[in-house]
Design a protein that fits this description.
Blueprint (H helix, E strand, L loop, with lengths): L14 H9 L13 E6 L3 H4 L14 H14 L4 E6 L44 E5 L10 H7 L4 E7 L1 H14 L3 E5 L3 E2 L3 H15 L1 E3 L1 H10 L1
Parallel strand pairs: 1-2, 1-4, 2-3, 4-5, 4-6, 5-7
């Protein structure tokens, strides 16, 4: 038997065009929804959402937080968990590890301090007192956090990942969700990044390997039918 490989493709298509081609393929297989989902809202905090306050913030869909609030509210109404993660570090950034060593400016990751303006969730976020909130140190919302045991206790089989950035903490969380055995959904309009190339390239990769990348309406429709 002769094995034939494929050389890496290089063409003039943009990351957005490649994503639209992949997502528009009617034959694409899906993991689908299970019986019970959790909404995991990753780092919807001022450092990354308040473009009026911080250079580190970014906006992709102007209605991102409205969509996050909508699906979070629907999930609560169906007795399904809603989780909010944030990132921050102690005063000397000694808990940031090697991730905090590449730069050291006012805007560097490790200079998001506990209870600072950068650490606060965006005031547009609509939280409930029963939502799980915690601060993480690394990209994934699963790494050294209570998330996995919380989802196990609540008998969740599907994780919906929102927030930012698409190429960073959203991607890391989605990959870990799949690795923990969860059906993983990434609603397109609920994620954001600094550049459309990073955003769409990572949505493409997530769709091809790790998650169902869907319009947020797919999550809304599923929840409304429960």
């Amino acid at each position: 038997m002769t094995l034939v490989g494929t050389k890496m493709v290089s063409d003039s298509r943009t990351a957005r065009e490649i994503f639209e081609e992949v997502i528009g393929n009617p034959a694409r297989k899906k993991f689908g929804f299970g019986d019970k989902l959790a909404i995991v809202n990753v780092d919807v905090q001022q450092s990354y959402t308040r473009t009026d306050m911080f250079k580190t913030a970014y906006e992709t869909d102007p209605n991102q937080i409205d969509y996050i609030n909508r699906i979070s509210s629907l999930a609560r109404a169906k007795a399904m968990p809603v989780i909010w993660s944030r990132v921050a570090y102690k005063g000397d950034a000694g808990d940031a590890g090697v991730w905090g060593t590449r730069t050291d400016t006012e805007d560097s990751l490790q200079n998001i301090k506990y209870d600072s303006e950068r650490h606060l969730l965006d005031p547009r976020c609509d939280l409930s007192g029963d939502d799980l909130q915690y601060t993480k140190r690394m990209p994934s919302a699963f790494f050294e956090t209570p998330l996995a045991s919380y989802l196990t206790w609540h008998k969740v089989d599907t994780v919906v990942v929102t927030g930012g950035s698409t190429s960073g903490c959203v991607r890391a969380t989605a990959v870990d969700a799949l690795s923990h055995g969860y059906r993983t959904i990434v609603p397109i309009e609920t994620c954001a990044d600094k550049h459309e190339s990073y955003h769409f390239a990572n949505l493409t990769d997530l769709q091809l390997k790790y998650a169902d990348v869907e319009p947020v309406q797919a999550v809304i429709d599923w929840l409304e039918k429960r």
